[in-house]
Design goal:
By secondary structure, the chain is mainly alpha-helical. The protein folds into 2 domains: 57 residues, Orthogonal Bundle (Arc Repressor Mutant, subunit A), CATH 1.10.10; 121 residues, Orthogonal Bundle (Tetracycline Repressor, domain 2). Helix content is 76%, strand content 0%. The N terminus is likely disordered.
Length: 204
């Protein structure tokens, strides 16, 4: 007669397995992605390499996160899709691009939920080399090309715009310099919109 497992033996056998359910699989994928994005950057990290690192089928990565971009935003804890927001802001008349970009930028950073997540991401990028590499590669390889393509701008122009908006984020939301935090959102838009527009108008 086949022996019947005791509850304790069954419990111990369950614990010895690699997977404990979907939540464990998702956590393993996030852990693997965080490691590989930090080590290799966004562009050079493939969905397959993340699946291999996590010990799961690559289809499970797509199942849980949809795409490599979706996985990256989950790793960095950024709500929503930053690329779609960039392209939405870049769509429209070039003559008002500077104001649209800074309006979109501040509306995201001033949002109670999204702003907190983005500040945590920025703080992580400043303090951790792996996070900095991952975010820097994502910005250079995904965000800036999306802006350049949608708005018809050169890479040089987009780099100048990026230095302005991320410099503003650093000063207002991370360093919290009084000369930046004292401004209202409308004042930020009024002051930075024309500056970014000048970069657009002078660029190619």
């Amino acid at each position: 007669m086949k022996p019947v497992d005791s509850p304790e033996r069954t419990k111990n056998r369950t614990r010895s397995g690699r997977r404990g359910g979907e939540s464990t699989t998702r956590t393993d994928i996030l852990t693997a992605a965080r490691h590989l994005f930090g080590e290799n950057g966004f562009t050079k990290t493939s969905m397959r390499s993340i699946a291999t690192e996590a010990g799961v089928d690559v289809a499970l990565v797509s199942y849980h996160f949809g795409s490599k971009r979706g996985l990256f935003t989950a790793v960095m804890e950024v709500p929503g899709d930053p690329i779609s927001r960039v392209t939405a802001a870049a769509s429209g008349p070039r003559s008002d691009l500077g104001r649209r970009l800074i309006t979109t930028f501040t509306s995201i950073w001033e949002n109670d939920d999204m702003g907190v997540a983005l500040q945590a991401m920025l703080r992580s990028a400043v303090n951790d080399d792996g996070a900095a590499k991952a975010f820097g590669d994502f910005a250079s390889g995904e965000m800036m090309p999306a802006l350049a393509k949608t708005a018809g701008l050169s890479q040089e122009t987009v780099r100048a715009i990026g230095s302005c908006v991320f410099g503003l984020a650093l000063m207002r939301y991370l360093i919290r310099a009084e000369s930046f935090t004292s401004l209202t959102v409308d004042e930020l838009v009024d002051q930075f919109g024309p500056k970014i527009q000048a970069i657009v108008d002078q660029g190619r």
